[in-house]
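Let us work through a complete example step by step.
Step 1: write down the sequence.
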Amino acid sequence: MGSNESNDGHATCQAEKCYNPRDSTLRFVNTEDEFDFLCEGFKSRRALMSCGHAVTPTSLTNWCRRLLDQGESRFTCAQSGCVYEWPFSEVRKMALLTPEETEYFQKALAANAQKDTHLDTKLCPGCSTFVRKETSNLSVRCTVCTAKRGRVYEFCWQCLREWKGPAPRSDRCENDGCCNESLKTLKNCPDITFESVTGVTGCPSIRACPTCGSLVQHSKKHCKSIVCPRCRVKFCFVCLKLAEECFKTSKISGQCSSGVAPRQSSIPVWKK
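Step 2: predict the structure and record it as tokens.
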């Protein structure tokens, strides 16, 4: 195969990464590389991903980099009919990511996840696997770290450190400096001055969407309603009611019958 073994125990091939044939944690198969879409003929032995499809480390690296470049925040199998999502820990191992590639992948994942309006995900500080949060509880369990450490591992969604103190909690953990930056923004942002809405004063310039909790700003122009870019729900920026409900009793560019909703002191949780 024209390879030798490097200092880190991986086999190296000319111009590509190759698996160590003595790695007993890999499931080697004598089938074609199912991710060599450009027919480059990578020389490494083929190994099975957890979904059952065969890859070489270079073909897997290329596929996952392509996903990142397309703005994806999840690593999914490329084979038709397979909807399997690989954890980052598996990709890092099976793609034999270098330290430089690992850093690039982590930064790209984080950036893409922030742009993804359908996911509430963050990187676990213990293993860099993406974890999703479904409730308002800030204490989030990582199943990967829990399995590796042989004990329950939970981290704070807010400060991204291992959880400290009693749980569940929705405000903060007991790590020093843990605070909700979104709530600070809602509390301290200046009032907005609308250009087209009359009779409204004392309205904060930043609101948390009452449906999904995403922080949004009004353009100051046109009517007082806004469509949340994350959940696509239209609501009144002034009274925080759904737009159709507000407009039953108020003009679209005038005061709300219920007045200006006070500054929010909690972040709504999206119940999808």
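Step 3: interpret the result. The two ends are 51 Å apart (CA to CA).
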